[in-house]
Amino acid sequence: MENKPQSNGMMKENNAVKKKVNWSGSLVLASLTGALGSSFLYGYNLSVVNAPAGFIKKFYNETWERRYGFSVDEGTLTLLWSITVSIFAIGGLVGAIIVTPIVKFFGRKCTLVVNNVFAVAAALLMSLSLLAGSFEMLILGRIIMGVDAGISLSALPMYLSEISPKEIRGSLGQVTAIFICIGVFTGQVLGLPEIFGQESRWPFLFVAIIVPSLIQAVILPFLPESPRYLLLEKHNRTKAEKAFQRFLGKDDVSHEIEEVLAESRVQRNTKLVSIVQLLRMRAVRWQIITVVVTMGCYQLCGLNAIWYYTNNIFSESGINRETIPYVTLSTGAVETLAAVCSGLVIERLGRRPLLIGGFGSMIVFFAVLTVSLTLQNTVHWLPYLSIVCILAIIASFCIGPGGIPFVLTGELFQQSQRPAAFMIAGTVNWLSNFAVGLLFPFIQAGLQTYCFLVFAGICFAGATYLFFVLPETKNKTFNEISQAFAKRNKVTLEMQEMNHYPGEGKSSEGQESNFTSSVDNGETKKGIV
């Protein structure tokens, strides 16, 4: 009984600490600025080419005729347009592959800042292509913009996961998904005929890319680097403490420093691992499989198919074709609202329920949509049911599968493994993106409205895997998450610690001594082998 008041007092103190560290000004500004010049641009470039598609194809035809004296045939024009759209994913794959050495050399924050060079260069190429009479400039700009997206979609979640307290790591991580949705919605709005959706104005859609890039390039340098990166990879305790103090909004960050040092002692080393080393580590085998499954399902769950059918379904519902672009804005609005709701509830409900529930809801609505599309010519009100299903599928996706895969990739791996893990996740993401763009027309031609059953099957497979394999990561440290996978990986905790760096001959005591001597002085004095 005597311990009860003390226990209550400790609980109040802990709650007070949580409230104090939750959302500092620097933390909010870093997340918003980082996302504005990164995931926002990714979403924007997914939708920005849709509205001016007819004008751009006309530009391609006129350029071809001016050069060769005859109009381009329909097959070549379709090929050029397909390359313009899909080449974005190839650039993204390149960006995902090169991100590991970049974040190691520049750090997380500086990578985001330097990455704006790609965005500005791409914006200039695409916006000036009409003036220069060169459609090659537009295609090249799409490739470079893809590289920017590939880098940012790995560096941003990495940065956010490392600067946020574990109590709000999920909510802050959802900023990536929220800004992707805002970017898609912004592209839809700016593409309206009253704004830039006109033949003479479509280049301004690409000029607009420069604005968020410049905002990020101006503001982000004044915010701290990831304190985990500073402490574990740069071995600079002084800068790491200052970064923690700014992000957490408090002076005493000894607990956070010790938590990071505890992670380093478990790893026994802070040397970054390569992809090959990571794939050979038994201690992270199921973490890698989980990331591959979630990222694969993120792209293959059928949302791209929904965008393909949207205009046709709206038209079948009796909506005037001139009005459809405005009605389509409802999809972007629902997407954004669902992503925001996910960010608000993720720390209460956890990652598992949102992921599994999101995929589960998509299965149900895909099934209903298949029935309604198949029978829509027999029952007059079924097209309206199809619209409801489309909005429900988009909402289900954005509540869970749309953002949590990025959060999980940052949570399932230790500091030294994270860059390689994000490279694997990014590669799967962009390859899947490219595969959907390449294969979906054939799937749709062969199965017609039944193509949605394929995506329902993918969602079912993903939900089943996550139900049996994924532990809840809410409010857990990175060490606790690793320990949750230890049994499934069939390794003891000691084996798990040693497995981080197989073949290292140095004793853990010597390594820990070297690490401590370097961080205590705020600079690297001894190398860690």
From TrEMBL:
Which InterPro entries does this chain map to?
GLUT (IPR045263), MFS_dom (IPR020846), MFS_sugar_transport-like (IPR005828), MFS_trans_sf (IPR036259), Sugar/inositol_transpt (IPR003663), Sugar_transporter_CS (IPR005829)
Key words, A-Z: Membrane, Transmembrane, Transmembrane helix, Transport
**Polar residues bias (residue ranges):** 508-521
In residue numbers, the region (Disordered) covers 500-529
Instruction: Enumerate the subcellular locations listed in this protein's record, separating them with semicolons.
Output: Membrane
Residues in domain Major facilitator superfamily (MFS) profile?
Answer: 31-474
What parts of the sequence cross the membrane? 21-42, 79-100, 112-133, 139-160, 172-190, 202-223, 288-309, 324-346, 353-375, 381-408, 420-441, 447-470
Q: What does the record say about its membrane topology?
A: Multi-pass membrane protein
Which domain of life does the protein's organism represent? Eukaryota
Q: Which family does it belong to?
A: Belongs to the major facilitator superfamily. Sugar transporter (TC 2.A.1.1) family.
The protein's name: GTR9 protein
What taxonomic classification does the UniProt entry list for its organism?
Eukaryota, Metazoa, Chordata, Craniata, Vertebrata
